[in-house]
Amino acid sequence: DTAVSQTPKYLVTQMGNDKSIKCEQNLGHDTMYWYKQDSKKFLKIMFSYNNKELIINETVPNRFSPKSPDKAHLNLHINSLELGDSAVYFCASSRSVRGSRNTIYFGEGSWLTVV
Amino acid sequence: GENVEQHPSTLSVQEGDSAVIKCTYSDSASNYFPWYKQELGKRPQLIIDIRSNVGEKKDQRIAVTLNKTAKHFSLHITETQPEDSAVYFCAATMGSNDYKLSFGAGTTVTVRA
């Protein structure tokens, strides 16, 4: 009954491969996010969707493509993986009610290692 | 982070002492300031937050203060315990965009028994 769940938790793959990370939330939230945490623990937003609509698209290589089939799911597909893509990718979700508490709930993270 | 600076990067305290982490932000339109705790190998989890219309908020051993004029906010942990050892992140909304949080670089807190 994990609130924000993402799979796989660990992923080791070779350079040049294409991989996907899936995320689902059962909190009834309508906003979902992908964050990247690098080796120095720095957390940076990549994308955000609100009701399946892309609302935040930070400066991320176009090898990264998010897809939101419905508001409870946000997947991340990465093409032509590079060594620098190695990081922990966190999915997250929140309510979208403006002006109210905007707690972001994170998933457990997906540890991606590109070799 | 691009808009949020956090200090110190590491903090070692004796059990029972207090720990203080400070953050500054650049955008005067920022209006929401959460703090997250991340234990080793775990997800970041919200521990306390504050909105721009409040100057201070307390929850048991944890308190946050906000100075909007100076654009800085701080986390205070009193009577530290070993389980407080973790990485702590401050964050601020980017302008008035509630969806977009800019995180500080994190503070690794170690509580010595």
Key structural traits:
heterodimer, A: 115 residues, mainly beta, 7-stranded mixed β-sheet, 11 strands, globular, B: 113 residues, 6-stranded mixed β-sheet, 5-stranded antiparallel β-sheet
Short description:
The complex is a heterodimer of chains A (115) and B (113). With 115 residues, chain A is mainly beta.
Number of helices of chain B: 0
Report helical residue fraction of chain A.
under 10%
* Radius of gyration computed on alpha carbons of chain A: 14 Å
| Main structural class of chain A | mainly beta
Distance between the termini of chain A: 33 Å
User: How far from one another are the termini of chain B?
Assistant: 31 Å
Shape of chain B: globular
State the major sheet of chain B: 6 strands, mixed
Helicity of chain B, in percent? under 10%
Helix count from the secondary structure assignment of chain A: 0
Question: What's the arrangement of secondary structure elements?
Answer:
The complex is a heterodimer of chains A (115) and B (113).
Chain A: E1 4-7, E2 10-13, E3 19-25, E4 31-37, E5 43-50, E6 53-57, E7 64-70, E8 73-78, E9 87-94, E10 105-106, E11 110-114
Parallel strand pairs in A: 2-11
Antiparallel strand pairs in A: 1-3, 3-8, 4-5, 4-9, 5-6, 7-8, 9-10, 9-11
Chain B: E1 4-7, E2 10-14, E3 19-25, E4 32-38, E5 44-51, E6 56-59, E7 62-67, E8 72-77, E9 86-94, E10 97-103, E11 107-112
Parallel strand pairs in B: 2-11
Antiparallel strand pairs in B: 1-3, 3-8, 4-5, 4-9, 6-7, 7-8, 9-10, 9-11
